[in-house]
Amino acid sequence: MSPVLEVEGLCKSYGGVRAVDGVSFSVPAGQVRALIGPNGAGKTTCFQLISGFLPPDGGRVRFRGADITGRSPQQIVRLGLARTFQHCAVFSSMTVRENVQMALLAADRGGFAPWGSFARRNRERARELLVLVGLADHDDQPAHNLPFADLKRLEVAIALAHKPALLLLDEPTAGMALGERFALMELLLDLRRRLGVALLFTEHDLEVVFRFAEWVMVMDRGRLVAEGPPAAVRTDPTVRDVYLGDAPTSLPARG
Ligand SMILES: Nc1ncnc2c1ncn2[C@@H]1O[C@H](COP(=O)(O)OP(=O)(O)OP(=O)(O)O)[C@@H](O)[C@H]1O
Ligand SMILES: [Mg+2]
């Protein structure tokens, strides 16, 4: 399978801190991949660099074969590389459907259609996306009424407005109960099956990682220190050292 994302020698420093220090990897189209590592390892910074929210000090990012290094977040998302954030990003006073409609408007910028048919189509597509993420029954509610787990689903629907080939999800299940975590991951895998979208997610809960990821990358102090299928990463002594410190027995068995 050809890669949807290729990252080569990516670097970013804050003062003396090398937040991302020469990271290279590539993600095949349609793959579900986790990026894990302890707090401060550089996972979020990596996502910021890939999605254009931060300029890298060095290195390249290629998406579907095109060099996107240094492009703006808006340009990148329109190419089909969308993301969700470590802290939910929705318009809380708008309704659930309006949030998705706004995203569709942004995604359709530059398109042309008579306003009536455009507005109708926009509403229909918002509805389709809300059905996909399981929020169709909440479309008229203000977003701030949604429970936390549903807010994350809304954020995913907003990201899908751009018809992404790759979705970056920064700690999508943070702050959720275990049942909700699994339900969100099941939803994401279902989206992958239906839409073919590749998923790259960060996650601190290793039970979620080893249950859902097809490939796992491990970061520590800005560097990628291991990657491979979950079974190999789980037993990698380097990973046990950097990620689990002195508690190696807490790695969960495969679900
Ligand atoms: N805006 C910033 N200014 C200065 N230092 C920063 C900034 N953002 C991140 N850092 C530093 O860069 C390093 C990597 O941080 P980053 O947020 O990417 O880690 P992370 O792996 O996402 O951590 P977490 O699991 O806690 O979310 C850390 O040492 C952090 O303190
Ligand atoms: Mg982070």
CATH superfamily of the largest domain: P-loop containing nucleotide triphosphate hydrolases
CATH domain class of the largest domain: Alpha Beta
CATH topology tier name of the largest domain: Rossmann fold
Low-confidence stretches: 246-250
Strand order of the largest sheet: 6-7-8-3-9-10
Which ions, cofactors or small ligands are bound in this entry? Answer: adenosine-5'-triphosphate, magnesium ion
Total strand segments: 10
Rg, rounded, reads 18 Å
The profile of the biggest β sheet is: 6 strands, mixed
The amount of beta strand, in percent, is: 15-25%
User: Share of helix among residues?
Assistant: 25-40%
Topology as a string of helices (H) and strands (E)? EEEHEEHEHHHEHEHEEHH
Q: Which structural class do the helices and strands define?
A: alpha/beta
In short:
The chain has 255 residues and is of the alpha/beta class. The chain is 38% helix and 24% strand.
Topology summary:
Elements: E1 3-14, E2 17-28, E3 32-36, H1 43-50, E4 58-63, E5 66-67, H2 73-79, E6 81-84, H3 96-107, H4 115-132, H5 148-160, E7 166-169, H6 178-195, E8 198-202, H7 206-212, E9 215-220, E10 223-228, H8 230-234, H9 237-244
Parallel strand pairs: 3-8, 3-9, 6-7, 7-8
Antiparallel strand pairs: 1-2, 1-4, 4-5, 9-10
